[in-house]
Amino acid sequence: MNGKILETENVTVSFDGFKALRNLNFNMDAGELRVVIGPNGAGKTTFLDVITGKVQPTEGRVLFKGRNTKRLSEHQIARLGIGRKFQTPRIYLNLTPWENLEITCNRNKNVLATLFGNSPSEERRTVAGLLETIGLSAKADIKAGLLSHGEKQRLEIGMLVAQSPDLLLVDEPVAGLTDEETYNIGELLLALAQSHSILVIEHDMEFVRQIARKVTVLHEGSVLCEGTIEEVQNDPRVIEVYLGSHE
Length: 247
Ligand SMILES: Nc1ncnc2c1ncn2[C@@H]1O[C@H](COP(=O)(O)OP(=O)(O)OP(=O)(O)O)[C@@H](O)[C@H]1O
Fold this sequence. Notes:
Keywords: ATP-binding, Nucleotide-binding, Transport. By secondary structure, this protein is α/β, with parallel strands linked by helices.
């Protein structure tokens, strides 16, 4: 591995001739927190789908940790270390946050146990630590269905982290959240970025300003430009295709 956790080389995805991604060249370093923005239909969701193997590139290739993921199933790619957070939380509403996290830790038990010799008390410490990270220690034992939308998002991010992925893909985590909840998610992602590689797709520019170091702008299935949030916001091409219509 050349220090790149993710690379796409000339990736094109055609749906019946329509190119949702066009010769997309993208890469990010291990340990990076990257934000991808772009107007509606730019190809952001397709980009995540092609990384996770849900969609196959029509042309080009995707490398995860230097390995070509072609011919691998979605499940196999997930097991290589890619975790995806969808827009709507996928948590067990009848279970408590504690139980939700415990189940996720258990699912990974074989891997973790081999590595760390996970004992029940260590597992409790892991769950307690995760609850603290996502700011839900005080709500550990109420049904997850009673959590606010923002708290559910945080719980799902915690469940993702419990799977110990090398790369976290996070799709529009603050859609529909209040300003305070949005800020909390931002702080959580910044904290997680200290020990994870994270790729965030986002529309909310206030949120992007809070978390972004390097931003990639997608437009019509290709990278339009990359840079700091200031560079991107001042780029006339970006103003024309994206920011002009949103701010
Ligand atoms: N399965 C499919 N079949 C045909 N066209 C598709 C399919 N999936 C996506 N597209 C088209 O590809 C383009 C890119 O879609 P995509 O969902 O990746 O964009 P996006 O940037 O995520 O948009 P949004 O911000 O609106 O979610 C769109 O024009 C969409 O209609």
